[in-house]
Amino acid sequence: MTPFNLFSGLRPLLRSRAVIVGLVILAIVLLAAILAPLLAPHAPNKLSIVNKLQPPSAAHLFGTDEFGRDILSRAMYAGRISLLVSLGVVALSTVLGVILGVAAGFFPRLDTPISRLLDAMMSFPDILLAIALVAALGPSLITVIIALGITYAPRLARIVRGSTLVLREMPYIEAALTLGLPLWRVLTRHVLLNLASPILVQATFVFASAMLAEASLSFLGVGVSADMPTWGTMLASGREYINNAPWLMVFPGLAIVFSVLSLQLLGDGLRDLADPRLSKER
Fold it and tell me: Which pLDDT tens digit goes with each residue over 148-178?
């Protein structure tokens, strides 16, 4: 696909004000996280007991925490971990979901056992299943990614399975198999390429859900280590001071809200682009 054709295909997406707002917010969050070493006014772990629990001011725009650390700097650095965890969850859940979904949709003998497995996993609330997996594997950054990746894989697998069932009956798939093309080539060239759109749309929603789930796990004390700054751990440490220093929870909470909102707006736009009928029905 040429750059011109790619731009033409994305032009309807850029006409949506909601999508533009989502892209702008997401770009600000990403730039703040990536450029944190350059933009942060203070070191994220610099202690200053004399300045503890200071309200927002010119010296500390978001205030300070119970150890005198700058909230703005910590929020920017925390965004790097939160976004990294969410990106890892999206990558793992996409790989697992595509493998299970394509296997269930393309091979009838595997459909029943895989579908029953997905039903069993989806019968548990997401956060409960994630807590159980983290408890079994032990709390750490890697185990949180693995636990949430396994938790959200059934969502993608269901969508991939449904799309694969439709693609399997298409004439060009039958023609490719009749001509004796290798199965791996049929799956990669004719099936997976046509699944890119629904996978991309669902991945944006998984990204948002993973960000909320990571914050929830960290808030409950079963996520990443409390020494590692994430938006969830900042919320957890600030709940003890919510009456006297509400800014400890307000600003990390707003970071989560705006990040999730931007991903939801972007996901809605991608879904409308993939299936214009949905935008017309609303």
Answer: 999 999 989 999 888 888 887 777 777 777 7
Please give the DSSP secondary-structure letter assigned to residue 182: -
| Domain 15-33+72-161+197-281 superfamily per CATH | MetI-like (1.10.3720.10)
Distance CA 282, CA 276 (A): 11
pTM, entire model: 0.83
What are the structure tokens assigned to 54, written together? 């200071």
Torsional sign, CA 111, 117, 123, 125: negative
Mean pLDDT of 30-47: 88
Asked if the model's pLDDT at residue 276 lies above 60, the reply is no
Residue 64, beta-bridge partner list: 70
Neighbour tally for 128: CB within 10 Å:
10
The two tokens of residue 4 are 């011109």
Integer CA distances (angstroms), 239 to 48, 57, 123, 222, 254, in order: 20, 21, 31, 16, 15
Counting DSSP H helices and E strands in the chain, the numbers are 13, 0
Domain ranges of the chain: 15-33+72-161+197-281
